[in-house]
Amino acid sequence: MSWKHLAFVAAVCLPIALSTTGCSPATPEAQTAIPTSGGDPAAALVERFKMGTGLESLANQAAGATTTFATLAQQHGAAEAKHLVAGEIARLVPAYQARWDRNLATIYAKHFTPDELRSLATQGTGSPDAAKFRSTQATVAADMQAVSSPLLQQLVTEALHNALQR
Fold this sequence. Notes:
Number of helices: 8
Number of strands: 0
């Protein structure tokens, strides 16, 4: 299973997400639009910038590297196997997304103070903590791999099992 995609998401896409429109120093109106996530600033950061959206792509990549996928490809053809598995993953991701996002938020909370997390969530690249955010991405990706491998494997296993039943 490859984690190159997660490393890409963490190292490249997350800083890009922080630089999108509305992420510069926030106006009072923009601050009210920031998710509160029950007062958890790490969860608010993950939610605001949709940092966990790589789950589906990573699951498809991981599934495609399995012997089960190869079996499906032999039975149905590569394109149909990809379609079957991707459909199952897309159907299952909502059941896994909250846990994935929670893992990511927990990891960010380990590396940043609540004030730093709030600053990043409200100010994006305008935050005084943006440089720390960028410099921490490799560590966050490694931590995410260590913590979330079982969750990813569970998602992929369930999707492949369902695809085999079709």
